[in-house]
Specification:
Elements: H1 9-37, H2 47-69, H3 76-94, H4 100-117, H5 120-127
Amino acid sequence: MRIASDAPPTIRGAGLLVGLQGLTGIGFAIALLVRALGGGSTEGNNVFGEAGYFTVLGGGVVAVGVALVLGKHWARSPSVVVELLLLGVAWYAAGPSGRPGIGVPVGVLCVVVLYLLFTARSREWSLGLDDEYGGEGAGKTGQ
């Protein structure tokens, strides 16, 4: 099935990666719930609240990813913010936490998504300049 979108391939690719990051957050929330229901949580730790928090955040990130794939211009800015925040998380995981096996791949993924969002074609699309200067929508008359 092909999705009708005026977004360039870089934006759609970034949208797919952002959506996968959101699904990972939701998967983490599910893992927290499974652990809590299995008795693996400690007393005084509100695992259900934490799982709810990650579900809401993950759902928002999935929504932004889907919006990018569908070609919604507004979704580019929130996805940049998400990537910058995740880049900080990746740095902390790779450095102070001593988990480079987690931090480095997450950091690389964030840099890839930021690159896709900041290519010249992506910037033109986000500003609506692609239609004026020969983009995919240019030259279409009444179709």
